[in-house]
Amino acid sequence: MSEQNKVSETSDGPQFDRKQLIKFIVELGPLLVFFFVNSHYGIFEGTAAFMVATVVALVASRVFLGRIATMPLVTGVFVLVFGGLTLYLQDDHFIKMKPTIVNGLFAAILAGGLLFDRLFLKIVFGDVMRLTREGWRILTIRWALFFVVLAVLNEVMWRLFSTDTWVTFKVFGIMPLTFVFALAQIGVLKRYEDTTPNTGALSSDDI
């Protein structure tokens, strides 16, 4: 291995770590802002701050990562729409229902794709993971079910508990649950890893 390749590999490592850190901050930042402002000033002020922080996070993602991922973009649009309704109508039901609708939408899209033999999860993550078609199918089913679970949990939390408890769960409950679930899928990623040479050409089976 040449010295140039060694330098290249060494420089790639910190760059990957830096991007992952930026991605984590971009995703967690608006939630922390929401939690802090809500705890000090209330749900409507927290919602307004959440909307502003979401826009800032999306812009930061575009500037520092060069792109805005599909799921954060969709979530951001819903934050602005339901947050706007919450503030305009002074009804916090809208912002509380937003996670239910977003997670239900993701579940419906993934499940609907399976019905038409389309693996939408691969479209989103195909550039970072290489799996066989069966692997993508299994992963799609699992994530669709997980989104349903998140939707149900959100309904339980906002309907049966206080606003502060719901906000706490949204900020400090959803992300750890998602992280644990993602880790639990490592077995699938290893078992169904696609080891065939990547030619770069797309086929009808790619989606």
Describe the structure.
The protein has helices spanning 3-41, 43-65, 70-89, 93-115, 120-125, 133-160, 163-172, 174-184, 186-191. It is mostly helical and 207 residues long. The chain has two domains: 1-89; 92-207, no CATH class. Helix 4 packs antiparallel against helix 6.
Give a brief description.
The chain is mainly α and 207 residues long. The chain contains 9 helices and no strands. The chain has helices at 3-41, 43-65, 70-89, 93-115, 120-125, 133-160, 163-172, 174-184, 186-191.
Q: What is the general shape?
A: globular
Order of helices and strands: HHHHHHHHH
Specify Rg, calculated over alpha carbons. 19 Å
Number of distinct beta strands: 0
How many domain regions? 2
Number of helices: 9
The percentage of residues in β strands lies in under 5%
Distance between the termini: 37 Å
Largest sheet data: none
Average of the residue pLDDT scores: 85
- Runs in which pLDDT lies below 50 for 5 or more consecutive residues are 1-16
Helix- and strand-based class? mainly alpha
> Percent of residues in helical segments?
over 70%
Observed structural traits:
mainly alpha, about 210 residues
Per-chain topology:
Blueprint lengths: L2 H39 L1 H23 L4 H20 L3 H23 L4 H6 L7 H28 L2 H10 L1 H11 L1 H6 L16
Helix pairs in contact: 1-2, 1-7, 2-3, 3-4, 4-6
